Amino acid sequence: MSDNKPLRAARKARVDVKNCAACGCCASACPRKAISIIRGLFAAVDNELCVGCGKCAKACPAGYMRLEAAQ
Amino acid sequence: MKKKWYEYLWIFSAAYIVLGFFNILFAWLGIICFITPLLISIAGGGKAYCNRYCGRGRLLELLGGRCGLSRGKDMPGFLKSRFFRYGFLIFFLVMFSNMLFVTYLVYSGAGSLKEVVTLLWTIKLPWQWAYNANASPWIAQFAFGFYSVMLTSTLIGLAAMMLYKPRSWCIFCPMGTMTHLICKAKSRRLLSEINTQNT
User: Please, are residues B49 and B9 in contact by the beta-carbon 8 Å criterion?
Assistant: First the structure.
């Protein structure tokens, strides 16, 4: 992975931190390992690594992971 | 990408269900799935069990994902609400305590061993073929009770997988809710900081 520069994308994954059950479906679906589960509380996305592919949003059973336009 | 060893843990979950049809005493192995997540959370490992090592999660992911047995729809709001998650946890704990009490009755001699697996807490299935009276009655009673819990929750998990997304069960899984509560209790300060930032 080291030869790849962080890719820029128009959309980034965003977590509904308040409702996230921290099951980790999104983290195991992420092909770039951009998602980590913080202290078993909720998922967090590393915006530098996220390419907005949407695999996490598809994996999240509760729909708490969405793609939003990057700021 | 090379597969990690824990991606094969679905074999454990599948084998557990199958073994229960041959010898009910294998049900005792299920305690691993109850104690490990709690120990990991208490030791500060967060929800690593749910995130990586849960055999059932892996099984649902495999059947619903690669095998395509899931509709892939979002869950209805009620099923993912906190009310339902905590409510299901309480219901689960009450039924689990009841199972322990029945085991105690058999242990004390006040009750007799019932060679049945109870599905969905109501349907009693005769299961005597999986027990050949080679253990103390209370050990067998616990095995029948524990296997009932595991089989029931596996079936609910599979139903949720088919109707919604593969790992929909994980949202209201009582073990997941319990470990989540432990993690929340351990990170109270961090959570209150996040809440004050948001308001």
Answer: no
CA-based angle B197:A67:B169, to the nearest 5?
A: 85
Residues B115 and B132: their CA atoms lie apart, in Å, by 10
The answer to whether A44 faces chain B, any CB pair under 8 Å, is no
Surface of B (41-60) touching A: CB under 8 A: 41, 45-48, 50-52, 57
Q: Is B104 helix (H, G, I), strand (E, B) or coil?
A: helix
Per-10-residue mean pLDDT of chain B, 199 residues long, equals: 87 94 92 94 92 94 91 91 95 94 93 87 86 86 94 95 94 95 88 74
Q: Write down the residue that tokens 């059973």 correspond to.
A: A61
Q: Which residue of A has its CA nearest to B40?
A: A40
Q: Quick one: which H or E segment has residue B123? A: strand B123-126
Amino acid at site B130: A
